[in-house]
Structures are given as C-alpha cells and as structure tokens.
Amino acid sequence: MSLMTEGEAPGPVRFYLACDDIGCPARAVFDLVIHESPPPIEEDLFGHILHSSARAAPYIEEQGWTFTQGIGYWCPTCSKPRSERPAPPRPGRRHIARRQRRDPRGPQ
C-alpha cells in the first residue's frame, strides 16, 4: 500500500504517498485539515479506516497522481503512457582512479 497517514480527523492529517510503479522513486508528503469526524468504528469499520483517504482523493488526483484498484498509486510521470514519458537517464561511466599495477617481479 502506497498511501499512509499520520494523525486523526478531525484535525490535521499528514499523508505519505509513494509511486507503486516498479523502480520509480517518486514520493509526496502533504498535510490536509479534515473537519469531519470519521464514522464510529463499531458501525462502519471500513468507513472509519478510509475516512481520511477518501477526503484526500480529490487533492491527490488534482496533483496528477492516479489510482488503479489492485495496483495502487502512480505518480504523474508514470501515469502517462510510456510513449509520452521522458527517456530514463542512461547510466554513465564512472571515473574511478585506478591503482597502479604491481610489478610481477615483486618489490625491488
């Protein structure tokens, strides 16, 4: 699951969002003030648990993130078709200082 919360409604709730596309490092953290209390846990367990995320869903969508049932959240870049995404960076050669070769005859 890529959406986690910290805090309890009513009041400020902090959201932690991570892209579920394989290998994508995209993350987002934002705060929302939720004025409504969640339904009582005894009456509606799922409504109580999902209350904050349901209030945040329009904001998350407005920021370009998409949610797919069973897959999770994808960042704005990964939400685009692959043909429209920027090319991933090519790995470059690292310039590592090489140590000098040892003389096969041993120390002189």
TrEMBL record:
Residues 78-108 are annotated as: Disordered. It comes from the Bacteria. Residues 91-102 have a biased composition (Basic residues). This is Uncharacterized protein. It comes from Streptomyces abyssalis.
